[in-house]
């Protein structure tokens, strides 16, 4: 399992631009999986911006369990926070 995860990480690191990222997502994931991942990122962004669980639930339609899981990852993990910070840094001049 670890070997497959490492291969996936290498594949993600090889992405050169948005089109390549979209192409890989389309090839690897179902539409529902992409929607779910995008929704989780939106949840993380809203929570990081200080929105309440109720606000996030209304904005995304996500279950309280999903919001709680994302919140836990946002607080104790490193992935969401780093990505959100990098996205926010890139926004002004894009």
Automatic annotation (TrEMBL):
InterPro entries: Trp_repress, Trp_repressor/repl_initiator, TrpR-like_sf, YecD_YerC. GO terms for molecular function: DNA-binding transcription factor activity; sequence-specific DNA binding. SUPFAM superfamilies: TrpR-like (SSF48295). It comes from the Bacteria. This is TrpR family protein YerC/YecD.
């Amino acid at each position: 399992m670890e070997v497959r995860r490492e291969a996936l990480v290498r594949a993600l690191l090889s992405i050169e631009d948005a089109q390549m990222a979209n192409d890989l997502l389309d090839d690897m994931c179902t539409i529902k999986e992409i929607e779910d991942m995008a929704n989780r990122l939106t949840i993380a962004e809203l929570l990081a911006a200080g929105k309440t669980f109720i606000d996030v639930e209304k904005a995304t339609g996500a279950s309280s369990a999903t919001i709680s899981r994302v919140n836990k990852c946002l607080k104790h993990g490193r992935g969401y926070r780093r990505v959100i910070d990098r996205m926010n840094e890139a926004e002004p001049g894009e």
